[in-house]
Amino acid sequence: MLKTALNEDISSIGSGRPLTDSAGSSRMAIYSQDGLGLGHLRRNIQICKEFLKQTPEGKSQVLLIADSPVAPFFQLPEGVDHIKLPSIRKVSAGEWQPRLRISTPEVRQLRSTLLHDAFVSYRPDLVLVDHMPGGAQGELMPALEGLKKARPDCAIVLGLRDILDAQEVIMRVWDVEGAYQALRQYYDRVLIYGVQEIFDTARVYELPVPPRGIHYCGYVVNQDLVKPGRTALQGSGVGAALGGCPRRKSVFVSAGGGADGHALMQTYLRAIRLLGARADFTTLMALGVNSPADESRELILDAAGLPVQMVPYVTDSLHQIAGADLVVCMAGYNTLSEVLSLGKKALIVPRPGPSAEQTMRARLFAERGLIDMIEPESFSPFVLAERLLQDLERDDLPAQDETIDMHGAERAAARLLELIYGRAVVAKG
User: Fold this and answer.
1) Distance between CA atoms of residues 158 and 152, nearest Å
2) What is the reported pLDDT for 200?
3) Is 147 exposed, middle or buried (0-12, 13-18, 19+ CB in 10 A)?
4) Which superfamily is assigned to 232-393 in CATH?
5) Backbone torsions φ then ψ of 126, nearest 5 degrees
6) Which residues of 314-346 are buried (b: 16+ CB within 10 A; e: fewer)?
7) Taking all residues of the chain, what is their mean pLDDT, rounded to a whole number?
8) How far is Cα 161 from Cα 134, in angstroms, rounded to an integer?
9) Is the peptide bond before 86 cis (omega within 30 degrees of 0)?
10) Which of 82, 108, 206, 397 has a Cα-to-Cα distance from 366 of 20 to 30 A?
């Protein structure tokens, strides 16, 4: 079974019990950079929920600074508001393309100014920077410098998913953009949303250790309970849409945010056509909220006559995953974490770029017997068709792995509150 116990020595701060009123009111700001999808935004909102849950009611607030094209998309908890930065899209390591029709230096300056003014005006007790110590192309540096002058006692924390990219890529880009220097100069603590025994993030990327240490928190995942009494796919209307066959096996196909999911979706539909009568299972395909309109229209036409229901997106992917006999998806951090937390069979097709992150993650989990995967260079309708039939019949996935820990949001929130709470106690003493 997957590990479910909180086994780290955070004492009462990490137990999920609210802090006492002596903690006072606290303000947190989060920098959440999503150059392609929704993954960072999803993860940060889960941490927001736990941060608020572990503090006295009404005693905390969070300002989320995001740049996803559809931010905030997910419903924000009470006590959380957001600022939307002009969006930029990652095209390769260290290279970004603005959504606005202005030059990259112009949009960088605009974003940097907005970040600086937001941090200095909001005056947070704590800032959680997601993924990039200096922000995209170093845009966060002026804001961190300004904040340190305006609020010297503000704690600054870096939050990292387990796998960022190939080691040599991250070390080169972080060196060029000054990320390592920013980490040494501004940061009090690093939180890693993963398990050290599976991937030693700090060692691989040679992270400098800040004054309050580096802490592995476990995987951040939506811990909401799946509604009982029906399968998610039945509840979505798939059975009725496909002739009322609720006992047929079902596949849920997800492309995450959908900005780069077209190849997966198109290949899946071609695989179903190849299978013909052998495709005696139903499929729900969630194209993703960022799926380009022209590509979505093409996929809808391609799906004509197939035992497939297609939706633009689902608001509750957890329930769809729980109700499926097999999940087919890319290797994004959040989707894969949800799959593992629910103990579902999954066939993973990592995206080939713009980073090596997904392929690295998929290989690690496949080696542990937690998922099945198709390497990007081997991905084709024929290979996918045969693997679908095989995986629907397998009963050895996922393997039991006691090292998998899905309490990352709780531990991350506790580690953040530890900084605020400890400082408040010292100040009153």
Assistant:
1) 17
2) 98
3) buried
4) Glycogen Phosphorylase B; (3.40.50.2000)
5) -150, 140
6) beebbbbbbbbbbbbbbbbbbbbbbbbbbebbb
7) 85
8) 16
9) no
10) 206
Are 398 and 373 a contacting pair, CB within 8 Å?
Answer: no
How do strand 88-92 and strand 95-98 relate by DSSP bridges?
A: antiparallel
| Burial category of 16 from C-beta neighbours within 10 Å (exposed 0-12, middle 13-18, buried 19 and up) | middle
Tell if the pTM clears 0.85, that is, is over it: yes
End-to-end CA distance of the chain: 45
- Which residue type sits at 221? V
Neighbours of 58 (CB within 10 A): 10
Please name which of 131, 158, 196, 159 lies closest in space to residue 364, comparing C-alpha atoms. 196
Q: Is the pLDDT of residue 8 over 80?
A: no
CA dist., res. 62 & res. 377, Å (int): 42
CB-count exposure of residue 89 (10 Å: 0-12, 13-18, 19+): middle
Domain range annotation of the chain? 11-223+406-428, 232-393
Q: Structurally, what CATH architecture does the domain formed by 11-223+406-428 represent? A: 3-Layer(aba) Sandwich (3.40)
| Length in residues, the chain | 429
Q: Which of 164, 209, 166, 168 is nearest to 187 (CA)?
A: 209
Residue 224 in this model has a pLDDT that exceeds 90: no
Residues 30 and 63: their CA atoms lie apart, in Å, by 6
